[in-house]
Amino acid sequence: MLDLAIIGGGPAGLTAGLYATRGGLKNVTMFEMGMTGGQITGSSEIENYPGQGAIVSGMDLMQSWPEQCQRFGLKHEMNQVSKVTKSGDVFTVTTADGKTQEAKSVLLATGSVPRRAGFKGEKEFFGRGISTCATCDGFFYKGKEVALIGGGDSALEEAVYLSKICSKVYLVHRRDTYRAAPSTIEHMKACENIEEVTNVMVEEVYGDASGVTGLKVKNRDRGEIRDLAVPGVFVFVGRDVLNEPLKQDDGTFLCDVNDQGEVIVDLRMRTSVPGLYAAGDVRIEAAKQVVCAAGDGATAAVNIIEYLG
Ligand code: NAP
């Protein structure tokens, strides 16, 4: 039986794995189907990770984390966890291949995925000109014009990144003020080839067999439509938490969640179910920062060791 099953291999999961194994737990498995490192690996420029003086990509920031954890005995299983149940004191972790493993404790560190904005054409052209990752897809639009939708930190940071590759970036936002941090807004405004298209709603993204060829936006006050003829549209409108493994057969969640599906935890990352913890972006009130997710992971691991002790 596992001492601890960690679900998710981002900053929270990896840090929990490091602290749990270094703290003496012998049988700890981290379940991560994809590449370790989490959603931050899709970010192009990180300048606010403490101690990391230079601006680095998310990929570079996370590169050494898995090896550091594995040195202390963390096992990585490349498998997706589909369900977690609990009977008595024992958790059962079911993976997508139908196999089950028992665990004395479980940490959910699954994070979140990019939210869809819900405009016409989004589904049809997703992956054919619509993207949620500038680092992955920006290069396809080298020297071309692109549009980017959103007004938070992700949108503005990625607009700045794309402005260095593309000839022009239309920053399309539904309001005329941004959610992003003041310093990020300043960076964005300093880029001469970013045009702010604010106070508009996306009417539709259109295209043909080759993919996206443009989008139409409608001014919210005047109602006029503007046509932006671009081959690429990037969408950064927030994220949805990945709480699927907690869903039980009867449709309820294994532990308490709020109305957005975020897992309710206390300051020790304990959920409403003893032995079940949550860390990082999947929990309530998450600051959605790498450093905070890592802190959550460490906090959870320290308390899991105490719980098992
Ligand atoms: P966010 O802060 O929630 O911003 C989402 C943006 O998308 C908002 O401007 C929102 O508009 C807009 N939006 C939402 N739904 C929309 C829709 N259906 N159609 C059009 N626009 C829509 O999301 P985020 O930028 O992904 O950031 C998430 C969290 O991570 C935040 O806490 C952020 O501070 C943090 N983060 C931090 C850093 C950093 O510190 N370096 C980097 C990235 C992210 P409204 O403003 O009108 O609601």
Question: Would you write up a description of this structure?
Answer:
The chain is an alpha/beta fold and 309 residues long. The chain has 2 domains: 4-114 and 239-308, FAD/NAD(P)-binding domain; 122-235, 3-Layer(bba) Sandwich (FAD/NAD(P)-binding domain). Helices cover 22% and strands 28% of the residues. The strands form 4 sheets. Strands 1, 2, 3, 4, 5, 6 and 17 form a 7-stranded mixed sheet that branches. A 5-stranded parallel sheet has the order 8-15-9-10-11, covered by helices on one side. The protein has a 3-stranded antiparallel sheet with strand order 12-13-14, with no helix packed on it. Helix 1 (11-22) packs parallel to helix 8 and helix 6 runs parallel beside helix 7. The chain is elongated, with a radius of gyration of 21 Å. The structure holds NADP nicotinamide-adenine-dinucleotide phosphate.
Summarize the helices and strands and which ones pair or pack:
Elements (H helix, E strand, L loop, with lengths): L1 E6 L3 H12 L5 E4 L26 H5 L2 H6 L4 E3 L3 E7 L2 E6 L4 E9 L3 E3 L7 H4 L4 E2 L2 H4 L7 E5 L3 H11 L4 E6 L8 H8 L4 E5 L1 E9 L2 E9 L5 E4 L3 E4 L3 E3 L34 E3 L11 H19 L1
Parallel strand pairs: 1-2, 1-6, 2-3, 6-17, 8-15, 9-10, 9-15, 10-11
Antiparallel strand pairs: 4-5, 5-6, 7-16, 12-13, 13-14
The protein binds NADP nicotinamide-adenine-dinucleotide phosphate (NAP).
Keywords: Disulfide bond, FAD, Flavoprotein, NADP, Oxidoreductase, Redox-active center
Organism: Halarcobacter ebronensis
Catalytic activity: [thioredoxin]-dithiol + NADP(+) = [thioredoxin]-disulfide + NADPH + H(+)
